[in-house]
Design goal:
By secondary structure, the protein is mainly alpha-helical. It is 66% helix and 0% strand. The radius of gyration is 28 Å and the shape is elongated.
Length: 415
């Protein structure tokens, strides 16, 4: 699995290149730009059940989806649709050298930076005269810059793997490409194979392209970056809705767990939430430990308090109240030590709510005076929530304060 670049991202870059060249008419501008933005900037707020499938498909942009999004729009060239031009661009990358040249020319789509020399400006002036240039800080500009940077950082093996993945990705369009170019054949994917001296049945061809037929289709269009974003979305869904991992995501997790594949650390947190919702305490406990073990290798102890917070909530949900109290006390101490106010405020709020539900477990906490009396705790949480702009915590604190006032009024009426 690649770290960032995939064949589908190359398809998006080619579509951006077409838009920049001015061949997309004004009638197709809004649909094409909307399509590009939906894949480059997927909205986490759109997470209704009807949009869940389409949201997951945004990280698996197949060539068929790309065709459906462009084939109905005519281009500025008579007799050609946007899909025809995109297909021409896609098949024009007919060698590894052409792929390198494509990424090398991506800066021509961007506005000139402050540090650009006058010689470079004169050389590229003609190439950019008729183009729509993108700001370097715009969504398209940032995507183009990162794509080129990631390609420059690729090792030769990863570069050739990306090239082979691109061949597999565009192979379903060969029949459509033959309609426009009758001379295209089964070996048109590489211009070097068209030379008379090349023996396509020879050993060299077998060493280079023999593994194309055995390459899994799913592995050609996956990247660690896309998987991490998809996992973040799934975690937000599970925390908001309280549901388990859907079947599509479960299959993706199994695919990434194969030997030799880079497993994002967030996948362990998804497994933790799924095991927790299913009532599997041992598996949820192990997955939680795995997630924070992998996470804190790169982020030191910055997330240690969140590991303790999740552990406290997990212990309380499975009825281990004494262990939950111990974990939440350590969470509060660690959050204070690291000056993590959001985690500290949430932990104190959770401890207050836990004390109202299980007052018999709060003897040790009350002796230490961690949260004080109910009124003092609510007053403290309310002030800290306002300081930290934690409006959800402020709302829950105000609700708890209202419940406390109602209970006191009822007691006064009874007396």
């Amino acid at each position: 699995m690649s770290r960032y670049l995939t064949p589908s991202k190359i398809g998006l870059l080619l579509l951006i290149n077409l838009y920049s060249s001015g061949v997309v008419p004004s009638s197709a501008t809004v649909p094409i730009l909307s399509f590009l933005v939906s894949y480059l900037l997927p909205s986490y707020s759109k997470c209704s059940q009807q949009e869940e499938d389409s949201w997951e498909q945004r990280f698996d942009l197949s060539i068929d989806v790309l065709q459906k999004a462009t084939i109905t729009y005519p281009s500025a060239i008579p007799g050609r649709t946007v899909w025809d031009l995109l297909l021409n661009k896609l098949w024009s990358i007919d060698s590894l050298d052409a792929l390198h040249a494509f990424f090398d020319k991506l800066p021509l789509l961007l506005e000139k930076g402050v540090g650009t020399s006058s010689e470079e400006t004169d050389d590229d002036e003609d190439a950019q005269s008729d183009r729509i240039l993108f700001s370097r800080n715009s969504p398209f500009g940032a995507f183009i810059r990162r794509a080129q940077l990631e390609y420059m950082r690729l090792q030769f093996y990863d570069e050739t793997s990306l090239w082979k993945s691109l061949i597999t990705y565009r192979n379903p369009t060969l029949a459509f490409w033959k309609r426009r170019n009758p001379s295209a054949g089964p070996y048109s994917f590489d211009s070097n194979l068209q030379a008379p001296s090349v023996d396509v049945d020879g050993r060299i061809f077998g060493l280079i392209y023999n593994d194309l037929s055995h390459q899994p289709k799913q592995s050609t269009n996956d990247s660690t970056h896309d998987m991490e974003r998809l996992l973040e979305h799934q975690i937000a869904q599970m925390q908001r809705m309280g549901n388990r991992v859907p079947k599509v995501m479960r299959l993706k997790l199994r695919a990434t767990a194969k030997p030799g594949m880079t497993v994002p650390s967030a996948s362990y947190y998804v497994q933790f939430l799924d095991a927790w919702k299913s009532g599997d305490y041992p598996s949820s406990f192990d997955s939680l430990h795995q997630y924070f073990d992998y996470t804190m290798q790169s982020r030191d102890r910055a997330l240690y308090q969140y590991a303790l917070l999740n552990l406290a909530i997990l212990q309380a949900d499975f009825g281990c109240f004494s262990e939950a109290i111990t974990a939440i006390q350590e969470t509060i101490a660690t959050a204070r030590e690291n000056h993590d106010l959001p985690c500290l405020n949430y932990s104190l709020s959770w401890l207050y709510q836990f004390g109202r539900t299980h007052p018999e477990e709060m003897t040790e906490v009350q002796k230490k005076g961690i949260i004080g009396s109910e009124k003092e705790a609510l007053s403290f949480l309310k002030s800290k929530a306002k300081e930290s702009n934690m409006w959800t915590l402020l709302c829950s604190t105000l609700l708890s304060e209202a419940k406390l006032l109602l209970n006191s009024v009822r007691l006064d009426m009874i007396q």
